[in-house]
């Protein structure tokens, strides 16, 4: 191997302190809300939210996933939803813990953990 090339056998250290974005999606028609979390691969919150939004759209309109959020996108149209930053948290475990607290406090209607309607739908498939 020459001096200019890097060894491919070395593994990068996995970062455990990456920033995460906790976001809120709101339906402008019904007022229903969804709280989610995504890793922030760059320093831009706007970029992280844009990428997560694109993934939600793909899941809703291409994969036709049966989750309440994705059903709401198909029912009301993506143009009738907003996405906004709630918090930026460093560390995966801390971010997920904070997301659970926010879901418990705000009780968003489109999150699986907080409504019996969703639990009923989830149990039908079993």
If you had to describe this structure to a student in words, what would you say it looks like?
The structure is a single chain. α1 (45-61) packs across α2. The protein has 126 residues and is α+β, with helices and mostly antiparallel strands. The protein is built from four helices and three strands; from the N terminus they run ββααβαα. The N and C termini lie far apart (55 Å). Strands 2-1-3 form a three-stranded antiparallel β-sheet. A hairpin with a 5-residue loop joins β1 and β2 (33-39). 40% of the residues lie in helices and 21% in strands. It has a single domain (19-124), classed as GIY-YIG endonuclease (3-Layer(aba) Sandwich).
